[in-house]
Design a protein that fits this description.
The complex is a heterotrimer. By secondary structure, chain A is α/β, with parallel strands linked by helices. Chain A contains 15 helices and eleven strands. In chain A, a hairpin with a 2-residue loop joins β4 and β5. Classes of the chains: A alpha/beta, B mainly alpha, C mainly alpha. At the A-B interface, α3, α4 and α14 of A face α12 of B.
Amino acid sequence: MQRCLAVVWSVLTLVLAVTGANAQPTVTVTMRLAEAEWHVVRQEVLPRFEAVCNCRVRAIDVPPETLVQRLRAMQQAGRMEIDLFAQDNMRLQELIDAALAAPFTPEESQVEEAIYPSLMAVGVSAGARYFLPFRPNVQIAYYNAEKFAQYHLQPPRTWPELLAVARTFYEKERTGRMLFTSAGGAPTTTQLYEWIVAAGGDPFDFAHPGTVDTFRFLAALRPYLSSESRRAKWNTTNDALAQEVAYLAQNWPFGVPLLIQEYDKTAIRTYSGWAGPVREAHVIGGDVLGIPVGAPHRQLALALIRHLQSQEVQAIFANRLGWASARSDTAASVEAWLQPHVAAVGEAMRHGIFRTNVSYWAAYERLVDEAVQRILWRHEAPEQVLPPLAARLATLRERP
Amino acid sequence: MKHYSLLGLAPLALYLGAFTVVPVVSTLVLSFRTPKGEWGFEAFHALAAHYQFGEAVVNTLAITGLGLIIELSLGLAAAAALASRFRAQGLVRVLLLIPLGVPTIVAASTMRYVFGMVGYLNEVLYRLGILTLPIDWTGSRWLAVVTVAMADAWKVTPLVMLILLAGLQAIPRELYEAARTDGAGPWQQFWRITLPLLRPALTMAFIIRGVDAFRIFALPLALVGRQLPVLSTFAYVEYLEYGNQHTSAASSTLLLVMILLTVGAYLRLAGPEEVVR
Amino acid sequence: MKVGRELFLMVLILGAAGPLYLLLKVSISPPAEIMTPHPLLLPHAITWRFWERVLASGQITAPLWKSLGVASGVALLALTFAGPAAYSLAQLPVRWRYGVLLSLLLCRMLPEVSVALPIAVIFLRWGLLDTALGLILAHLTMALPVAAWVLTTTFSSIPREVQEAAAVDGCGAWRTLTSIILPLALPGLAVCGLLVWLLSWEEFTLATYLTLGAKTMPLQVYYYLYQGSWFDTAVAATLMTLPVLILSAFLQRYLRETSLAGVMR
């Protein structure tokens, strides 16, 4: 009798174990990564989490623009299928405005000491925290070393040098070879923001002398810019560099593996960039982590956040992908071919600035767009374009 | 027979009614409301005050008009060339249908490789000795309009050709034979027989193409960027980049009105005779 | 005249197939030949590594099957439902016909971005995220108006005399339909099927809302375009064009010239 019971018991346990193993919860995380970056995340980062959490991770690529759309659609349908998202830190306002991101409690908002405190500021709005740090990022300058050597030029480190280099290329080749990302939207606003700060101006005041100086400099640079600049944003800039339409451009570091490994453009080098009249400044972008309202596996999502912020994982990002780390205690041992580019990123980070988060950012972007388009591509003078826009911007600032 | 008619139509009408009514009504309603929830024309005012609005309307009309002219004439010529039997007719038809199979986003990117500064068009012209410096095909506004219209026509002309081909083949041979025995030349045959009998197919091609042509969006953005705005650009940018549903809906409503007016005008002026009466 | 026509057709073929040739060329060329200010016109060196990489990545098979399934489903259902409706519409007086058709098209007169969200939310609410069924139903909202248009024009272009002659010969309504009307309408049906299939095959906006983990081909191409390399995009885009070529090769035999002469005895 006892033996019979023992057999039944062990069979039952086996059955339960098998079905239990199959009923692992699945946590769904979305990010936007380049193909090369996904490779590392899927092969090295996520399996480590699956081993400890007793769950499965479904990682899906979702670009920042479509993330908001998808979350909105799911929210309206009453079915949230995403547990965690990594979002570009310049596209957060919509998520907050549309109540798509769930706030963290003060306990959940605690992060390890090693995480740079400056990265925590961007996730807070109206006293509540909606996002936690994931990875900081900064734009660097790419240049075509062969072309620079051909005309005996050095990568520019100041605005006058920049103007001289651009003019030389134009005169020698009868076409502009420098890119200014003026396709509109976030790419343009980011680039202009750091140029304005580099000139000592106030990005939110178009009447400030430093800001006006920046636009004047752009107008001076205009004849020597590549016409490809009109289409230049983050992916088309890489194309332009690859096809040698442009020899100098600013972009995020994700272009490095693409240009150098994938496209074999070994002539492309990077450095931190140039300083304006007052200082060198680079906007610190990157991704932050957030949990959508109504996420089905919130606890697992929180655990995944800790995992992505851990020392081990941040070291993987730094060493395999050349990412800047969110922690101060990351031991870096970067692969040889990545080292000069990681150095450029590090140097740019030393001059890093954070964008001020304002509630009228969308309206602000529209004004920046108009200013850049009119000055650069309609050849209007800054003196005529800026004052009315400055007035509209001032109205925005005064609203509560 | 009358009862059959309505029965056949019912499921379709019901399904589409449910799905057409919701988006159209929601768009119209959104365009006449302000963010504060009141009724008003604020969204339209904001749209009209935009520094690129007038340009966008003109660009949309120009690209659509030019595109339709190219597509209809080229499509008709191609359909006529394919209508009668010849060797390898099937193969030629399949080859000419290729552009339809290339998805819009890829077509837009491929066109950049063709019309770009270091694109293949410049390269071919350079090798033929016609050019020394590359031309910026999307540099000036009107050149860009022509380039975009041509790039769009590339993708869509096979469709027009298909529709007109089916229409041409429905015209009975006897009519042409009778006209020939009466002494009519090929041009008169075309004018008196082909065109009138082709009217339904032409109308269908015009409407199916026209409706889509007004909504063009991906191609100008990929080829030129923000400097060649069209009405759909406003709908897209206002909604997805600036999160403003009202101005986005307002530009959609405007587009809807433009399309209805154009289609109505065409039906009145050049549609099948019974409609005109 | 014949030479003129042949020349014209050759120019057309060059124009139509040229860009596809470029895509194919990009997908099999080493980067040095493409990423240069003076691209070569003819392929010199050929490399298959991009094809191997994309096909082995495991990111192509599922989207390809999903898109194929959805497009075929949409085409079949559109023909089935729009067919009878179009036949009925073709019997209506002309003004009514165009009135109904235009109102069916209203939805297509709005930019995709305004229309996609309300439609997608309905299907999401029914739990159809990531399903082929949800996509098929959503695509039908776009496909049915187009199908109704094409088929109505097809049916209304068949002369009344043909139907009446068949009645005189003693055919009942059903026999008229299947042995007289359908064969004459075959070119129109083929065109309609192809059109609707293509519409669904390259549809992108609704797919963005209605898929999360199970992408369709256009979404995969979009991914490669913005986050992969141009070579991956070229491979995926060429792959997307192949089924279209096969389908149009299959359907084009229905576009053969049909003569009414034999029917009108």
